[in-house]
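The data are quoted verbatim here:
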Amino acid sequence: MESQNNASSLMVITVSTAIQHIDDQLAQVFFFINYVSLGQAINVFGILSNLLSILVFGKLGFKETSNISLLGLTISDLCSLVTLFLFNLCQTPEFYSLELPFEPYDVAFLTVGWAHVGFARVTCCLTAFIILERCLCIVLPLKVKAILQPRRTALTVIVIFPISYASIFPIYCTASLVYSFSQFRNKTLLVMAYNDLRLEMESVSSVVNNIIPVSSFILIVVCTAITVYQLNKMSKWRASTSNISDRGDRKLEKMVVLISAIFIVCYLPCEILFVWMLIDPELRFDGQQSNLFKVCVSILYFAETLNASTNVFVYYCMSSNYHKTVNNLFCGAKKV
């Protein structure tokens, strides 16, 4: 009786009887690919590669502001992948077969799922900061280099983490885990439910949930376009110079542009989903199109996994210092 009273003021999530665009079988296929098999394999590689990148940036030192920014991005990517690894683990058939006293997807979605979203937003803001820094270095080189000192860059990166991550907090004001009877499993389970504050917080959470990723995405697109334009404009002049510093800056700018381009491709589905959710109010975790929503989320998580796992290739191929440090690490280990 007590659990029933506690749950009386909560809108417990149930499967809608309305016709869904994606049935349960098709949804399970997407979940298996994006969470259990391919997605998890890329995730594990991404975790290992980001650990390697942290070690490399530590050895390179932090005299260059770019190393500080890229280290922050690498740490954010690592945290994003670790939380997503735990979420994916909860979606495996073996985990479901344990007959645990809670609904795995619900608990994982509210805990590590939203934690992943928080770190993904940190990645958004850090990527925007990095490409903005490179863009300004081309447009206003003397002024920016005087302003962006290593200490200031480190402080900016540190501040971005809590501010960006805090954007997920509204969800915890409207949702919680409660016990509810499951007819499918014929027992009481811990599930995700929304409380009475949901309607009041809907407008606030929509603004908070959209403003950071959307504004960061737009800034990244604009700065990337400006940087590419300026690089093409200055390419002839820079090709004729023998200044090693200028050549190093050009390689760094191209590397940052490629990182931003990968980000834009991987995060474009996320921006599309945001707009879609504004148009279709039933595209929600507990809406009439819950299966479609969950499939879209699985695709977003897979794309974010790709983004967080591919930067190591960019660093290795486009940064001579990174390339040399990695080779020294592995060659040195072989010699020993």
Observations:
- The longest helix spans residues 198-240.
- Residues 38 and 304 are 13 Å apart (CA to CA).
- The chain is about 75% helix and 5% strand.
- The first strand starts at residue 11 and ends at 12.
